[in-house]
Design brief:
- By secondary structure, this protein is an all-alpha fold.
- It is built from 16 helices and no strands.
Length: about 450
């Protein structure tokens, strides 16, 4: 490996490994949580899964705003423009807080109506509604923590969010055990205990990063007094970056919820099976999501310096790393799937459904990873987010959702075939993304 390649690889590791460890750690504890919930039966598993799927719409929207903040901050760090770094952080944090409010109100005022879209089973809907009301208390802490985490990573200090995540996930897992099963004097709370533990853990995560933020004013300077917008960066330019990404992520997440509705309407057991694969998906994507984050930051800085050839070359390396990693992990999932399903206290039918869905996921996962790196990191790094919006909308709403409804309700196929058929939209998205990538129109420097 040449010196330049070695330096690049080390930089990737410095950014990607902490992010990957943080995400995998969260997924590992999510797996433990899932095992705990799994002892409560299929109804609780499906109910928590449906509520979590709806709340993920909010999480995805906030992640999109965090991604916009990352695009702006990384490019302005490359330009050494401290004033615009501050503006980018404050503006995106404010928008995140504003968006948290309507989501919170909706989940508190109409949880039963929302969950009624996902399942017709009354006990499952009751569990889901209670969980959704409590989990909505995480919305504000998640918004602020996401922006702080983005700032630290752009400063190439990805270790700090990792530490905060370690502490928070330990708190979450410990409290889950106490609240779910009623330990050290608490009454058993079941699925409500899972939600309460998550709320406390998210607050802990935010407090750790906020304290670190107060002690670290390096990117801003003490004398910067900035408005949101100035001559260097206008609201029209910001909207051109933000709106396509918000529309893209929101519609993609709504599409994912349409998939959940399909699974739920097939039956509670099918919904439980799809919920049981979430930790495995989280571990797989978590192990490689650091590549997407690193790509956005590293390529964004190169574009900020107008090093276009280096940015393009680095992008191809990121895609190669993702392909190799995803193929290896897919093989692992295929091998361990029979062992994984046996750790849950659910019906044999649910175990068999889960095993078959995991095999389908292992086949499609490399395309998911490449789309994550291309769409979530590379194509967005120049701020031309409209390309990603087009790709995601075409894949989800012209391919995935129609194919899912056709497979489930017209062809009446088993859940694993339904999942595989609707997941073929990942292949469509990958092909279109590659066409945008090759044309290089995404390679733009923010002025």
């Amino acid at each position: 490996m040449s010196e330049n390649n070695s330096t690049f690889f080390n930089t990737v590791l410095k950014l990607a490994v902490p992010v990957a460890l943080q995400s995998m750690l969260q997924s590992s504890f999510s797996l433990i949580d899932q095992i705990m919930i799994g002892q409560l039966g299929s109804t609780s598993i499906a109910g928590v899964g449906f509520a979590g799927k709806f709340s993920s719409i909010y999480n995805v929207v906030i992640a999109a705003i965090g991604a916009v903040a990352g695009i702006m901050i990384s490019q302005y760090i490359g330009q050494k423009n401290r004033k615009e770094i501050r503006r980018s952080f404050v503006l995106n944090s404010s928008i995140g807080v504003v968006i948290a409010v309507p989501f919170f109100v909706l989940c508190v005022m109409a949880p039963n109506k929302i969950m009624g879209l996902y399942t017709l089973d009354a006990p499952t809907r009751s569990v889901a509604s209670e969980y959704l009301m409590i989990i909505s208390l995480t919305f504000l802490p998640v918004a602020l923590a996401t922006m702080l985490s983005t700032l630290f990573r752009c400063m190439e200090n990805a270790t700090l969010p990792l530490i905060a995540s370690i502490v928070a996930t330990l708190v979450n897992t410990g409290l889950n055990y106490i609240f779910i099963f009623g330990k050290i004097g608490f009454k058993p709370m079941g699925s409500k205990g899972v939600a309460l533990a998550t709320v406390i853990a998210q607050i802990v995560n935010l407090l750790i990063m906020f304290i670190a933020f107060i002690k670290c004013d390096k990117p801003f300077g003490k004398d910067d007094k900035s408005e949101f917008f100035g001559e260097g960066f206008g609201i029209r330019r910001y909207a051109c970056i933000l709106m396509p990404m918000l529309i893209c992520e929101f519609m993609w997440s709504v599409g994912e919820n349409a998939y959940a509705i399909i699974y739920g309407r097939i039956g509670t057991k099918a919904g439980a099976a799809m919920t049981l694969i979430n930790p495995v998906q989280g571990l797989m994507i978590g192990a490689l999501c650091g590549l997407s984050q690193a790509a956005s930051i590293i390529i964004g800085k190169k574009l900020g310096n107008k090093d276009y050839d280096e940015a393009y070359s680095a992008s191809k390396k990121f895609m190669l790393y993702g392909l190799i990693g995803s193929v290896i992990l897919s093989t692992v999932i295929f091998v361990i799937s029979p062992l994984y399903v046996n750790i849950y206290n659910v019906e044999e039918e649910v175990k068999m459904m889960t095993k078959h869905v995991l095999i389908a996921y292992a086949v499609i996962a490399p395309f998911k990873v490449e789309n994550m790196i291309l769409g979530g990191g590379i194509l967005r790094s120049g701020g031309e987010t409209k390309y990603v919006m087009i790709v995601d909308l075409l894949g989800t709403w012209l391919v995935g959702v129609p194919a899912g409804f056709l497979a489930a309700f017209i062809m009446k196929l088993p859940i694993h075939y339904v999942y595989f058929i609707l997941s073929l939209e990942e292949c469509v998205r990958f092909i279109i993304s590659c066409l945008f990538f090759i044309k290089r129109k995404w390679m733009v420097t923010l002025e």
